[in-house]
Design a protein that fits this description.
It is a single chain. The chain is of the alpha+beta class. The chain has 2 domains: 33 residues; 118 residues, Protein of unknown function DUF192 (Jelly Rolls), CATH 2.60.120.1140. It contains 3 helices and 7 strands, in the order αββαββββαβ. It is elongated and about 75 Å long.
């Protein structure tokens, strides 16, 4: 009988510690049990977003991935307008690059291929007018999903 009481107390303490850890992460950490995935909608096509916030994340971009799910995109929110240039350094798969200004598509580069070797000269892809955001998706999706210049952009769980 005494043994069962001790086990019960140990189990209750264990549960209490777990609950305390979860709540401390919720209130003091940057995680949430109810984290909502940021999304972008372009011409009614929704993509889950990988967000490149820092300069280092923006420099690396998608080059650390060997593929990208069809429903996923990487967004580069710059916060101010400029002629941002993109290249395919260390990329392993082709992409479409979409330049956005004030919530509208301004330039699209379709089926941009990765370099064949590390010695390849890398072209720089820039918008035809200033942009404040860039989105990269799998090659061919812009054409397949009829994304075009002038399309409006909307976001869920993301503020640019």
């Amino acid at each position: 009988m005494k043994y069962k009481n001790i086990l019960g107390i140990i189990f209750a303490l264990f549960i209490l510690v777990i609950i305390s850890l979860i709540f401390s992460k919720l209130f003091f950490g940057n995680i949430s049990l109810f984290h909502k995935i940021p999304k972008i909608a372009i011409n009614n096509n929704k993509f889950n977003l990988l967000v490149a916030k820092t300069g280092k994340e923006q420099e690396i971009g998608l080059s650390k991935y060997s593929a990208l799910p069809k429903d996923q995109a990487m967004i580069f929110p710059f916060g101010k307008e400029n002629y941002y240039g993109f290249w395919m350094k260390n990329m392993k798969f082709p992409i479409d690059i979409i330049f956005i200004r004030k919530g509208k598509v301004v330039t699209i580069y379709e089926n941009v291929k990765p370099p064949k070797s590390v010695n390849d000269t890398l072209p720089v892809y820039q918008p035809t007018q200033v942009s404040d955001t860039v989105v990269e998706i799998n090659a061919g999706l812009a054409k397949e999903q009829k994304i075009k210049t002038g399309d409006k952009i909307s976001y869920e769980n993301f503020s640019n």
